[in-house]
Amino acid sequence: MTDRGTTLRGDIEGLRAIAVLMVLLYHAQVPGLDGGFAGVDVFFVISGFLITRLLVKEALATGTVSIGSFYARRARRLLPAATVVLLFTTVAGYVVLGSARLAELGSDVLAAALYVVNWALAERSVDYLAEDSTASWVQHYWSLSVEEQFYVLWPLLILLGLWLARRVGLRPTRVLAALLAVVVVASFVWSVLRTESSPETAYFVTTTRIWELGIGAGLVFLLPRLRRLPGTASEALALVGLLAIVWSAFALSTATPWPGSAALVPTVGTALVIAAGSTDRLTMVARGLGVRPMRFVGALSYGLYLWHWPLLQLLQEVRPGSGLRARLAVAGLGVLLAWLTLRLVENPIRFHPGLARSSRRALAAGAGAMAVTVAAGGALWASAPRVGELPDEVRGALALTDGSSTPDPAMIEDPAQTFTRTGTVYPTPGAAVLDVPGAYDDGCQVVQEQTDLPDEPCEYGPADGTDVALLGDSKMLQWLPALLPIAEQEGWRLTVWTKSSCGFTSTGQSPECVEYNDALREHLADPEHTPEIILTSLGKRGEGAGVELADNLDPAVASGAEVVLVADNPYRDSEDETGDPSWYECVEDNPQDYAVCSFPEAPGYGTPLLERAHEELPGSHLVDLSRWICPPGTPVPGAEDSEPRCPSVIDEVLIFRQGSHLTATYVRTLTPLLHEALIGTGLATSDPDEVPWEIPPVDSQTASRGR
Hints:
By secondary structure, the chain is mainly alpha-helical. It has two domains: about 10-385, no CATH class; about 395-705, no CATH class. Helices cover about 50% and strands about 5% of the residues. The chain has helices at about 10-25, 40-60, 65-95, 100-115, 115-125, 140-170, 170-195, 200, 210-225, 230-250, 265-275, 285-290, 290-320, 325-350, 355, 360-385, 475, 480-490, 510-525, 545-560, 585-590, 605-615, 665-670, 670-680, and strands at about 460, 465-470, 490-495, 535, 560-565, 600, 620-625, 645, 650, 655, 705. The strands form three sheets. It has a seven-stranded mixed beta sheet, sandwiched between helices. It has a two-stranded antiparallel ribbon with strand order 6-8. Strand 9 (about 650) and strand 10 (about 655) form a beta hairpin. The chain is elongated and about 90 Å long. The model is unreliable at about 1-5 (pLDDT under 50).
């Protein structure tokens, strides 16, 4: 970006126009533009070039870089429009979104205001707890976060380069170019490796994107040579570069591993166009890019990028399934809002004499704008519902029992009478995503990227208790709220080895998961580490996963471990009849009758695999609580058919949270039933009559670190 009074390159303004139109039309789902997301990569190269040109010019003229002045210019240029759009998004989200999504949007607005939302989105992309999250309304701020993080680091690296140049007596440009080359090469190599191993996180994180800005930055050090390019060469470079960008828009797709090496096409293409336009002669491509309509869109590109995404998300929320014409109309509204924002907000603040003359005032104003946005995001987050304690009269799963306490409790004659159809629900649907085992707050679930076993795994219960290990992914960890009070009565020490999206198998698993499981299998087979009891479960996996699970458990069994396989809970992993992506949102959206949110009776997807593992492991035990989640053979009153169906609420307790998981509250209501089932295996030794036939309170135990 350049200040008023300086010369704007028409070809760069045209490149901005192409970049924003690629992104906008891609998000509007215009057929054929499957690679429009590459417009962001075009922006990265442009930004790297323009910012570095300003910084290097200042560095060569003064021998240093004024960090305060640089950040003040960034604040005046970027924060006004970003703040307006974030505040609009916050208010619009509060008005139209269900309460279940307010906390997530609030935290996203906070992260966007602080320019770290790309890392939050990267974490969410591999977070099993976010498997049914919809796209964030501020998701597009991820690229701004990448740029801002670059703007923080690059001036500091330039200062380091200037200091090194003085120490070794070299020309500053050579040292700076060498430092940049190291950063670009390292980032590019990491981008290729990370895209291959973890494409979900690679898309968002800064470390895989720095090289793209670095390509643009590198052009600055080539400007003296670029200015001497022959006319024929510059024409050829510009044409090849433009074709590369256009090819990316039509030939790439979401199936293309990204960013990785594929991102070289639009980024190098952009660099070629900029390089060709750095001569004194205008190329034909530069003339085409610099025509008035392209310059107009280029001038609006920043505001248009900010506005288009939340507008499209708002359209999807208020008119789901809107057609292309409606989406393009909303895109047109984005152009209008971008123009108004430029005229009424961006330029008046950016070129305000008082702010332009004083970096301190500009920085203070920028800090104030960020504070307002942070406060808005925090208020939205605070307005979201929270998980509360159950009233004494609410029984959840226990309402299905006849009150007997034996290893095989009986179910009441008419289970459907416990199916809540309207009224209060615990937790409220808006808090369902928060109703998770406390082990997440304790940091017990190993993240997807990790391949090594934790040095000190989480342990719950007495250090000298019976050693019980929890293996698998979140489908096993979801049972922890019931296992904690059971462990307390049984004298068990629970050790958590669970890993996100990583059942104890190989089929359909990431390389990191397979490596982690190999290490865990070897660890548990060592007689010094073999637990007395292993508890594991499994969700939806490939056909051979049951046999693989048995194979992975076999070495520990040979060393003396007893195995309990906990059946997967019933669930249907598609949208309900109302189109809601999650069952708790369905309950929130249908307060008149929760029967709408029932689904056909079926076993949990992982249960057949666990049954196969049970067959392959003689002496293992299979514990199945499915009937207490979906009473068999029971139609749901008020449902469209009379076939057996599974409810979403039993005795006022919400059953499901993210994805196919049970709420921690419902799991707690299953505690006596799970305990009785474990007694039935012979591995829990309490007298069945001594099992407390009540719902335990929210457990206050926190994990210790052992081993």
